[in-house]
């Protein structure tokens, strides 16, 4: 939202603070100012000048123009505007003046030296007209200004600050200055209203006020009027539309002007019928539905309430009578409609902040006064139409001052509180010794202020939080409750990074193609209804697509690397919130050494928990069919270890994907150190092809065997392998004798033979 | 050969022995059980008792002088050998070692942990909340009913079944109020989502840390004190903060907290857009409606809440110019942390 410093100063006439200081104070006490933009700085240097000579230049569409002004005398300029003519008063810009950010210099144009220029409305920042040069009636009437830009988000709760009068009220309160009300409410003619208005549902439209004007001449507004609107980004159109925008910019009350001769019969405010549509002022047609509140005449919808008018009843050059609407619409309804139609207008933006119903008649009075200025001869026809439900006055708020002081943490005197609230035009009276009764003004009562908490803010911000003494909170010393699963994840992260893995964070979004690559159908995912891009429409059900992308991208510039991610898989559950499962995925990449990659991951698993075991399993499509296993903790499968299928990556990548809800770190359990020495012996077992080292090891058990350690595998050349193990034998209560060891060895060999295995 | 001659000759042989082996051979020859010195004592029996005593004394003296000569010479060889070995064992210690270097933790993980530790030390519980939230927890329970224009402040990713990706960590306040009994202090770090176009300074996925303290008589002055203390802890130096009004439906009063620009100390620079201040976090006293919806009586309890932008903090700390790098997965970027 843009605010003109000059405009605020008109409403706070004794304001002496600079635009910069005003902006800073607004930021500290009211709403966030985002910047200060000087506009119209050339005014005062550019002057109105009479065109005394116009001569064609051969071979050019430009013409040589001589102008005369009191300030600069006679000057010759080159001008290409089609509307330049002898006798007109134009705006002359001398060299040295900055126009649209560029400094004018004397220059030779079409062979003629141009000593400055004649400017268009666009070049002067008065309007958007660049078809020809500006023609001036009397003086230019514009002065340099500063535009204070306020962040719209910080005005969400303040319907009153969507107009200059509201902001001026804040500025007046901040500096302790007097506020001038621009509205002179003179009674409207005590006559019968000329327009009949009916409201179907007062919740959706609490008030509809309107006036008819006649003897209208539609023409451009005076330059100063256009300039004021243009500086705020409101496009000047004609005197009638400009007045509605001006009042909106001043009082925050959106208005709409209909061509009264095109409105058939009376006005009816109702919900649209399903089959209705409307051609809107912006040139688009909108299909309406039962949730859309519309303004209708006998022919059907002529405006979408609070959003936009229709083109059928629009003001045009031929308009001679207007119907000026100043109404109040329910915020939620306007917001729903503008969201559904994807149409946000200056009006809808204001209405959805809950505008003040008390404002409609004030706005009509202000508009009537302005129309007298910009549309000479205009007359009100008949009396005011003002249909409304009973206007609510919220109950006064009781404000206990000791409670207020406690909330702010600094002592506030009754005088201080009263003064601040009164400056913001709250009604204040003392209830008891330490209690105020506060009446909320109508423009703050629609939504913004409803309880005493809201008054804490009013008083706090006006005192200025910089003026508060910070106070240490008095809280009990207590150790916080633990969060074991979070601590566990932190532990795993440390462990993985110590083992050489670099942590990555991937997005939670995947597309159908990525999911399909890892065997997941789009239906098995939670779907995003409004994705940023069509390829981010699913929530990840697996971390693998992200990790896959990391592998492919990093393989482009690195020959070997390791990475990991801890994140949540999101699984849909019918009728329930999705299930979020924490996963750890670690990956090792190298150009050639696939076996080495897998070994590294096995080492990582051993670091995570030595009790984890590996069990070969059937490969999925994205896994190397000969290099895949389940990772087990006890009997529970907690994830998979595999080499990525070579079709998915250049080079080789091994991946482990673990469910962290199932993974536990090794439980620490102390056993006394054995007192009697152990003995060990080695065994080499001859096994056929693809006999698992682990399944042979599983046979090497005996009550005396304390530990079995795999030593090596040696291919015998005939397809069979020799697998060597070291067995450590011990007893808790004595040193083993040679016979005991020999017998244990025999028992083990027998078991091997029974399994069809031989010693080497 | 007389004892004196033998001693003399042997001493000179010891002195001229070229190697430890040669020395050892000489020692065996002279001092061995069957060595020349032992041979001389064979004649011992033929001597008179007087002669015997004198000869015995000479023999001992000769033996001692020879032994110490051998020992000294041997020590010389040993130390030379050690020196030679040590010299031969010279290593180039500048050769980089083989083996895997440690990886690195994501910068967000690091800063998150740091801040979690800081809060834990202040008695705050660390809570988790899901990434997918109900519309109720993400909005309604935080005093943002449907059709409230504040919903525009947070462009939301909507999911099937009335769920959404949480747009802030604030819904964990709702969970915290149900989980913990007042008085309590909690933080909730986590991933949040906004449906926004992505560029160098905007992301649809980023990290926040929610904080909430509920107790009796928590005041604005307490909030200012706490924030100042906390931020000095986070930045490791004294920071100047300022509070100004900010609108968030779940707090009343609500604030935007700015810190004085750490780069220019408030003088004005491009980072703070010449204002001397950097907007850092929204905060405020918890709105009574939010407490009520969380099952806490706002007449008895109140509190403050705040939201820290972790992604912002990381970018500020390291001067990261493009937010997209944080989730880009490029190890050339990530390994620097
Ligand atoms: Zn700075």
The mean pLDDT of chain B is 90
CATH superfamily of the largest domain in chain B: Bira Bifunctional Protein, Domain 2
Radius of gyration of chain B: 43 Å
Q: First CA to last CA of chain A: what distance?
A: 88 Å
Number of helices of chain B: 11
Second CATH tier, the architecture of the largest domain in chain B: 2-Layer Sandwich
How large is the radius of gyration of chain A? Answer: 41 Å
Gross morphology of chain B is rod-shaped
What count of helical segments of chain A does DSSP give? 19
Structural account:
The complex is a heterodimer of chains A (760) and B (337). Chain A is α+β, with helices and mostly antiparallel strands. Chain A has 6 domains: 2-40 and 145-175, Phenylalanyl-tRNA Synthetase, Chain B, domain 1; 41-124, Beta Barrel (OB fold (Dihydrolipoamide Acetyltransferase, E2P)), CATH 2.40.50.140; 197-388, Phenylalanyl-tRNA Synthetase, Chain B, domain 3 (3-Layer(bba) Sandwich), CATH 3.50.40.10; 397-467, 2-Layer Sandwich (Phenylalanyl-tRNA Synthetase, Chain B, domain 1); 484-659, BirA Bifunctional Protein, domain 2 (2-Layer Sandwich), CATH 3.30.930.10; 679-759, Ferrodoxin-fold anticodon-binding domain (Alpha-Beta Plaits), CATH 3.30.70. Chain A is built from 19 helices and 39 strands. Chain A has a 7-stranded mixed sheet with strand order 27-30-31-35-34-33-32, with helices on both faces. Chain A has a 5-stranded antiparallel sheet with strand order 5-4-3-6-11, with no helix packed on it. In chain A, strands 13-16-19-20-21 form a 5-stranded mixed sheet. Chain A is elongated, with a radius of gyration of 41 Å. The termini of chain A are far apart. The model of chain A has no long low-confidence stretch (mean pLDDT 94). Chain B is rod-shaped and about 130 Å long. With 337 residues, chain B is α+β, with helices and mostly antiparallel strands. Helix content of chain B is 40%, strand content 18%. In chain B, α1 (3-16) packs parallel to α4, α2 (20-31) runs antiparallel to α4 and α5 (107-121) crosses α10. Chain B has a 7-stranded mixed sheet, sandwiched between helices. Chain B has a two-stranded antiparallel sheet with strand order 2-3. Chain B folds into 2 domains: 3-88; 107-334, Bira Bifunctional Protein, Domain 2 (BirA Bifunctional Protein, domain 2). The structure holds zinc ion (ZN). Zinc ion binds next to loops of chain B.
